[in-house]
Amino acid sequence: MKPASVPVLVLVPPTWIGGLGTMRSLGRLGVPVYGLAHRRRLVPNASRYCAGTFPVGEEGRPLGKPEELVEGLIRAGKRLGAGAILLAGTDEWAVFIAEHADALERYFRFPRMPAELVAALASKDGLNRLAGLHNVATPQVARPRNADDAAMLATTLRYPVILKPLVSRPDVTFKAVAADSAALLRAYRTMEEAPDAPNVMLQEYIPGRDEDVWMFNGYFDSQSNCLMGLTGRKLRQQPVHMGHCSLGVCRQNHAVIKTTVRFLHAVGYCGIVDIGYRFDHRDGQYKILDVNPRLGGAFRLFVDANGLDVVRALYLDLTDQPVPMVLPQDGRRWLREDSELLSLWQYRRSDGLRIREWIHSLRGVKETATFSLSDPLPFIASMWKLALQTIQGKWRRRAEKRSAARLRLSTQAANPTVVTK
Description:
The chain contains 13 helices and 16 strands. With about 425 residues, it is an alpha/beta fold. It folds into three domains: about 10-110, Rossmann fold (3-Layer(aba) Sandwich), CATH 3.40.50.20; about 140-205, ATP-grasp fold, A domain (Dna Ligase, domain 1, 2-Layer Sandwich), CATH 3.30.1490; about 210-370, D-amino Acid Aminotransferase, Chain A, domain 1. The longest helix is centred in the last third of the chain and has 38 residues, at about 375-415. It is globular and about 80 Å long. The N and C termini lie far apart (about 90 Å).
């Protein structure tokens, strides 16, 4: 790799681990990596590999007037120097870059794609449409237009059904599995953002184990050629059975790789991509669950024998350096510490996971999301946040119990029961 003189600006909420992974991956090679400013100091941007921050958007999201956000990025580009690399870490930022590529291209390098393609892949109904056009298997989906439409669909669907955000955002991560129509409508009311724009999708829930969930992490060049592609399995998730990867293992799955390369080449995709699949034992197909047209949080699971990951592949390609042949590391494990601690407790309750089994499953872990002896602050920040959330959750549950008890007492006082002998 040539001397690293081209800086990188990663657009991701500072509390997300994708930004930290980028800073460490490229920073250890001498590449200056910048992030977005945050109101709290103790976040992953506290990493020693963070070269600096820029105050663009709010809480790491592209909130505000588009022209002001573009101006903020242009100011950052002028400070970094023409030709800096712009890297999206959320679906929102990926769509924003694609929509304003003409203005940003004067100051940054980034993979260019039609905004319509990025938006379609980032939305569940758009992905379902594209997958259908290119003969890629997906779970059946339905998009309710409003509460009445959801009630009608609830009587026709095959259960269980999973409810997901139609468009994912950093502040919208809630998912639910409904066993019947009543549970579906309760979850829908919780997730509905607005009566005329609910942002809720109903998706067929494919039965199986966590090990049936596969991930593809790759990088495609400007001609939609796959320069790097690795696959892995989710061993545990957070929340359990339907969340992000808390413990994963690299395993080359040639069927998933073949499907992904064919699909993304056909639609003209370029850049980093993070894709989820689930194997359906009922018909023997790998079904695509979602396509994230940007950097994934668990991308450091997918590191080859020479240390190549998708961020390094993008950096090499955009700086006109050859991307070496990928040498898979089957068996490499990666975990996210805060999520794995929560998963341990939850899997013990739901699946009877024993401590001995949990410890055994950690063999082969080569890297964790935040812990590093040479870069300790991100781990401290992560554990501090987990402790605060745990304490706040306990206080909230206690307050809810006290409120429910007071309500029962007031109801009994208003409606006393007369006991006769």
